[in-house]
Specification:
With about 400 residues, this protein is mainly alpha-helical. Helices cover about 80% and strands about 0% of the residues.
Length: about 400
């Protein structure tokens, strides 16, 4: 049996690096640019909110398009909104046009909705034993993004005589060209489209959704990845708010802690797939949930100590990695060679994007309503429920033991 990952996996790793670089750049500058262009402060995060909204709205249609025309053509088409996002974003900042900024981030969200399928595309037509390693490697593209994203934003923030950040948006157009080249280099197997193709009629679509809802292991895979993502977003954003507002730490200290968190999210992906092959999916998924619980326990017990918060953010990153990669790997194994798998992947990523969006918008509300400790207690309760559900479903499932 061939134990080497195919060349296309490394191309998707680089393509995902581009995807996550755009995400890192947008999160670092969207609120600042939005605040400078918004007609009133309360609207400053609207452009970034529309980015998440478009990811939610486009994810499932993107999976349907892939089932019709294949991964490669879909990814190539997705470079168009990315390039347009860069052009429109540049004009938005230069012309001080808030509406154009909203459009720019909406276009970026459209691209991200497609590019998030890189991890599944890397598993097409490879052996089931290699799938966790392929997913893990593609997710590891975030390591490059964690380094390159801040570097590009810093370098192009004040570029020449241009308005601040306008050149950063122009970089998206250059990244679109890189993404285009990488996807052109991917050699899509002749039988790939046949593998993805699904009958286009309502009865088939209904059967796919019904099969998804009736398969508890598929539901668990979606829940693990989605809830892990939501908890990560919630605690990451609220941690930065807690450090800035309650602890009055300098922005550089907060940024340093978040940078370590981002590295902890993606760096383990270089070996998460090997851990799954060695220890099994069940162990990795459980470890991820326990790490999320451990994060909240640290926050409750030592939430006013900077070093403790740094440790909790690192644990949070690791927990996200194990639940995200573990949930994705469980889904691909459960859907192996089944018709409708691409649509189920779309349902999966739709669930993830919904939870990620809730995790992004809820921190301020929960911090004012429940407080720092209350939010972490809520997170523990959610994770314990997920842990019990996981134990019940995976107890007798041989898929999770491999």
């Amino acid at each position: 049996m061939n134990s080497r990952l195919p060349f296309k996996t490394y191309l998707y790793f680089l393509a995902q690096s581009v995807n996550l670089t755009t995400a890192v750049m947008s999160v670092s500058m969207a609120a600042l640019v939005g605040a400078s262009l918004a007609p009133e402060p309360s609207l400053s995060t609207v452009p970034y909110g529309f980015q998440f909204l478009l990811v939610m709205l486009i994810t499932y249609p993107a999976s349907k398009l892939m089932s019709k025309i294949g991964r490669k053509k879909s990814f190539l088409l997705a470079t168009v909104p990315l390039a347009a996002s860069g052009i429109v974003g540049f004009l938005a900042v230069q012309e001080r046009a808030f509406s154009l900024l909203v459009i720019s981030h909406s276009l970026l969200g459209t691209y991200i909705a497609f590019a998030n399928f890189n991890r599944f595309a890397a598993t097409d037509n490879i052996s089931v034993d290699l799938k966790p390693r392929a997913i893990s490697l593609v997710v590891a593209g975030g390591v490059i993004a964690a380094v390159i994203g801040p570097m590009l934003t810093t370098y192009f923030k004040d570029f020449g005589s241009l308005q601040a950040f306008s050149a950063c948006y122009a970089v998206f157009t250059g990244l679109a060209v890189v993404s285009l080249i990488l996807n052109l280099l991917v050699k899509e197997p002749i039988d790939s489209l046949t593998h993805l193709h699904e009958p286009n009629h309502s009865q088939f679509r209904s059967s796919v959704v019904r099969a998804t809802l009736e398969n508890k292991t598929v539901l668990l895979a979606i829940a693990v990845a989605a809830i892990g993502y939501g908890i990560m977003n919630l605690l990451m954003i609220q941690s930065s708010m807690h450090m800035s507002t309650n602890m009055c730490l300098h922005f550089s200290d907060v940024s340093h802690a978040i940078q370590w968190h981002v590295l902890a999210m993606f760096a383990p992906s270089f070996f998460t797939g090997i851990l799954i092959q060695t220890l099994g999916l069940r162990v990795v998924i459980f470890a991820g949930i326990f790490l999320l619980i451990f994060t909240s326990l640290i926050n409750i017990l030592a939430g006013s100590d900077y070093d403790a918060l740094m440790a909790s953010l690192i644990a949070l990153g690791l927990g996200w990695n194990f639940t995200y990669v573990g949930g994705s790997a469980l889904l691909t194994r459960e859907l192996e060679n089944l018709p409708g798998s691409v649509r189920v992947q779309g349902i999966n990523d739709l669930g993830i994007s919904i939870m990620a969006t809730l995790g992004a918008f809820a921190p301020a509300f929960l911090l004012s309503w429940l407080g720092w400790n209350g939010t972490n207690i809520l997170a523990i309760g959610i994770c314990l429920t997920l842990l019990v559900f996981s134990g019940l479903i995976l107890k007798r499932n041989p898929t999770a033991q491999r």
